[in-house]
Please model this.
Amino acid sequence: MNARKQRAKLMMETKGHCSQLEPNKFTVRSQTNPENYYTVSKTDNGLICECKDHLCRKADCKHIKIVLEIIKKNKCYRNNTFRIMERTKLKLCKYCDSGKIKKSGTRTTKKGKIQRYACLDCKKRFTANFGFEKMRYDSRTITQALQMYYQGMSVRDIECNFDMLGIDVDHSSIYDWITKYSTMVNNYLNEIVPRTNERVMVRADEIWIKIAGKQNYLFASMDDDTRYWLASDMADTKFQHNADNLLKLTKETIGKNPTRFITDGLPAYMKSSKRIFGKKTIHTRHIHLKGDMNNNKMERLNGEIRDREKVFRGLKKIDTPIIHGMKVYYNFTKKHGALKGKTPAQADMIEVDGRNKWITLIQNSSLYKENSI
Ligand SMILES: [Zn+2]
Ligand SMILES: [Zn+2]
Model:
């Protein structure tokens, strides 16, 4: 890595370094003088920066490189908020992120005509239907099915509802969409470290669920402050299972050890907390009592999952995409009374643009995979 690239990388890792003011404008903080900002604008001729380096050399300066990198990774912070943008609105090449794209005919599909674009830089052509390219149904129908499913409807109920709307789709296709997109979005979101306070309080609990007629436990953890569902691990027994895996996944998600770790009296947590989080994490054990206020926050997540037990009827495998999708649904689409109507993700400073969060997340997930950064 050359020095220029290295500096850009360094800057990129600083929170708040780049903000998006308008759809076509980014500000990048100068590294030599943090008081200075440069504006990078997206024009018909690609990205343009106001710095001397760019004006003289007419080549991509470090600011442009940062913006490109951010667009690629879809990491953009505004007021310290991590924004996941609607990729179709950015009007960038699907393959090389160049802003020099032009309309280039249409493609006729069963769904109708779709606008095609050509990139003047890499010469490739693409449609801006990111994530839904080869699907026989449109993005709205597919994401609506996902949302209905995670709200507790069975795939057959959804099939029936679509039938009333004149949409002919088989329940097995609906199930395929759910597994495909839940996995895809989850893989993408795994790369995002939620903003947690300096001091992070994590709660963990086991949720009893029935899978294919058998009793199972979902070990889950959440951020106490934002109620963001951090990680989960499936087990067929509560008492023999060790919590190491859940704690490892939790640590991976928040990128550090929590300051405090709150659990019920289950012995497994004690040993695991010492092993995975270490001595600095204070482990508090609460014994479950009926009406106990202490675990109320966790109860809410428990309830959320248990109410949707129907959702799990089809589950067969232990590590299932459905659990991942449930997590996306809970963190990103479910508004929370105790969080003043915000979703846990919003409380966690992760903002997803657009009204249909699934669509924005899927757009980004599909590009993320293709760019394989
Ligand atoms: Zn510049
Ligand atoms: Zn291109």
The chain has 13 helices and 15 strands. The longest helix spans residues 171-189. The first strand starts at residue 18 and ends at 22. The chain has a mean pLDDT of 81.
